[in-house]
Amino acid sequence: DGAITLMRLCDGLVQMAPNEKNLLGALFDREFKREKNLEAIKKAAGNSKKDGERGREPVAIDPVEYQAREKSFFADVGMTGDDLGTMGPGAAAGGGGSPS
Hints:
This protein is an all-alpha fold.
């Protein structure tokens, strides 16, 4: 075909930042821990169903505890989370949001 394609990349994409490898490693570690915690919660909820209480109500989420965990996570990550719309079960009903 004989087609030639050139692509110009900015310096930020070509040269690695001084601490980029460590920052990405920390990011993956945090996400891995969060995923393991979610799986453990899911497994614990599944185990309660296997105990013979199939007529039980669904697992209730405590909004105060949920917001405390979200706030702790976003503090560890260095974000507020206010702009992400992830502040709990009452967020859609106006009961969510985090104090700044």
